[in-house]
Amino acid sequence: MQVGIDKIGLFTPNKYVDMVDLAHARNQDPNKFLIGIGQSEMSVADQTQDAVSMGINATMKYIDRIDKDKVGLLVLGTESGIDQSKSASLFVKTALKLKPEVRTFEVKEACFGLTAAVMIARDFVRVHPDQTAIVIGSDIARYGVNTGGEVTQGAGSVSMLIKADPKILALNDGHSAYSEDINDFWRPNASRVAMVDGKYSTQVYLDFFKKTFNDYKKQKNLETSAFDAIVYHLPFTKMGLKANRIAVEDQDQAVTENLETSFEASKQLSRRVGNIYTASLYMSLLSLLENGNLAAGSLIGLFSYGSGAMGEFYSGSLVEGYEKEIDQIKDQAMLDHRKKLTISEYEDVFNTALEDPEDGVVLESDDKEGTWYFAGTQGHVRQYKVK
Ligand code: CAA
């Protein structure tokens, strides 16, 4: 029995910053951001969007096309948690109107969180093939105004339905995992912004990629040429480009061109949305499916990296007819309809969102109708509403 991704939905908030504007405001050469970092825009979450609301909005993209009664598991990976105890997934479950028998919880290991959820869901569906699992990654990447990491911020969520006989990507057996207890990126409880040793984190990312990619190929007796595409966790697109260069080292022209072309397709969404931590790898996958030209049966490698640090490489095979499950036009429209913020507007929105609203204050969303949002707390209980 094959198990894998049957549905996929992307959500990003309705505001963004243009990297050329940001570069000018920070006295940087725009090409450093556009080429050196590889980002052209970044989505910005205002106070009304958080890990819960974005996760609901991503799942709403496909919820009407699934049998909700079959969902036996709902796992949400995030490093933008909204409570130290209660799982963000419970708020999502209520909004989605899932049955009370669903098993639901939140997982955390930095940007690896959604891959952890995918693996849990894969095993769950193998044991319960008549049930399905919803897995969500939802994050706001915050380093702070005028910091080195500012250009690598972003906000958004990817939600997927994991199911037997999937319509998009069948997950292959096997994986290569690698972990080490290190301090490349972390966020202490008292801080709303991440702490990072940026240069060290990029070195570790590449080191973990080499280790897991080589180990996976050895385990499965595969050559690099067997892969039609490799998708990466993209904290910024240059990071994936560096990993992809490692992947094609010593490869002939045809293999190199193939993996370079697919990498170009896989980075398009990330280039405009920015880092969405847990969901970034799966946004790369969606971008590849929307912008690439892959045939059914194509082998796709997936490299997941979570600081702290945990890396994993695994693969999936594209299912015949996967194109029917993807809606590139709607996703492009979501990006195109975002409001461009001036740098001073972005700084206001960003700094306001660092604070919790006073208890009892009701927040309103300026997003379009049908969007879920965080409406403030009442008696310190978070309220979620749909516009
Ligand atoms: N034109 C073209 N390129 C230019 C340029 C110009 N005018 N000016 C500079 N560049 C290039 C540089 O040569 C450099 O390229 P290489 O990396 O290929 O050498 C690139 O632009 C970046 O320049 P710097 O290294 O000088 O940039 P920086 O000191 O501002 O730091 C950063 C960049 C380390 C990524 C920083 O933004 C950061 O700390 N980001 C957050 C951490 C992060 O995302 N780490 C990734 C791995 S960790 C992870 O994956 C988990 C996660 O999601 C956070």
UniProtKB/TrEMBL annotation:
<feature type="domain" description="Hydroxymethylglutaryl-coenzyme A synthase C-terminal">
    <location>
        <begin position="176"/>
        <end position="243"/>
    </location>
</feature>
<dbReference type="Pfam" id="PF08540">
    <property type="entry name" value="HMG_CoA_synt_C"/>
</dbReference>
<feature type="binding site">
    <location>
        <position position="29"/>
    </location>
    <ligand>
        <name>(3S)-3-hydroxy-3-methylglutaryl-CoA</name>
    </ligand>
</feature>
<feature type="binding site">
    <location>
        <position position="242"/>
    </location>
    <ligand>
        <name>(3S)-3-hydroxy-3-methylglutaryl-CoA</name>
    </ligand>
</feature>
<feature type="domain" description="Hydroxymethylglutaryl-coenzyme A synthase C-terminal">
    <location>
        <begin position="257"/>
        <end position="353"/>
    </location>
</feature>
<feature type="binding site">
    <location>
        <position position="148"/>
    </location>
    <ligand>
        <name>substrate</name>
    </ligand>
</feature>
<keyword id="KW-0012">Acyltransferase</keyword>
<keyword id="KW-0808">Transferase</keyword>
<feature type="binding site">
    <location>
        <position position="275"/>
    </location>
    <ligand>
        <name>(3S)-3-hydroxy-3-methylglutaryl-CoA</name>
    </ligand>
</feature>
<dbReference type="Pfam" id="PF01154">
    <property type="entry name" value="HMG_CoA_synt_N"/>
</dbReference>
<dbReference type="GO" id="GO:0004421">
    <property type="term" value="F:hydroxymethylglutaryl-CoA synthase activity"/>
</dbReference>
<dbReference type="InterPro" id="IPR013746">
    <property type="entry name" value="HMG_CoA_synt_C_dom"/>
</dbReference>
<dbReference type="InterPro" id="IPR011554">
    <property type="entry name" value="HMG_CoA_synthase_prok"/>
</dbReference>
<dbReference type="GO" id="GO:0006084">
    <property type="term" value="P:acetyl-CoA metabolic process"/>
</dbReference>
<feature type="active site" description="Proton donor/acceptor">
    <location>
        <position position="79"/>
    </location>
</feature>
<protein>
    <submittedName>
        <fullName>Hydroxymethylglutaryl-CoA synthase</fullName>
        <ecNumber>2.3.3.10</ecNumber>
    </submittedName>
</protein>
<comment type="similarity">
    <text>Belongs to the thiolase-like superfamily. HMG-CoA synthase family.</text>
</comment>
<feature type="domain" description="Hydroxymethylglutaryl-coenzyme A synthase N-terminal">
    <location>
        <begin position="2"/>
        <end position="164"/>
    </location>
</feature>
<feature type="active site" description="Proton donor/acceptor">
    <location>
        <position position="233"/>
    </location>
</feature>
<dbReference type="InterPro" id="IPR016039">
    <property type="entry name" value="Thiolase-like"/>
</dbReference>
<feature type="binding site">
    <location>
        <position position="143"/>
    </location>
    <ligand>
        <name>(3S)-3-hydroxy-3-methylglutaryl-CoA</name>
    </ligand>
</feature>
<dbReference type="InterPro" id="IPR013528">
    <property type="entry name" value="HMG_CoA_synth_N"/>
</dbReference>
<feature type="active site" description="Acyl-thioester intermediate">
    <location>
        <position position="111"/>
    </location>
</feature>
